[in-house]
Amino acid sequence: MDYFVEKHSIVRQIWGKSDTILFIFAGAAAEFALSKAVDWLYFTNRLPSDPLGRLFSTVSYARKIVFSEKESAYRAIDTMAAIHAGVEAKRGQSIPD
Q1: Cα separations (Å) of 74 from 20, 31, 61, 78?
Q2: Are 91 and 40 in contact (CB under 8 A)?
Q3: Beta pairing partners, 88
Q4: Is 69 helix (H, G, I), strand (E, B) or coil?
């Protein structure tokens, strides 16, 4: 099997532990208020209306990428890119790097 992320990668160790994931998201949430670049996350109103759902959705996509075979990971990446492209089109602005 050809995985998107090598089996013994540190990335798999990080995304395989719920404590580490929660720590990363807590840090990101703390930084969130300081960055204007994240305003696009509010455009669809999905984040403020369901923050825990968005957290689980994000983790789900990340795990699909990290723990899947290459083709499945590419499909997940393509799905995320299509969702983001739709937001960019409706918003009339690119999502910042």
Answers
A1: 24, 29, 11, 6
A2: yes
A3: none
A4: strand
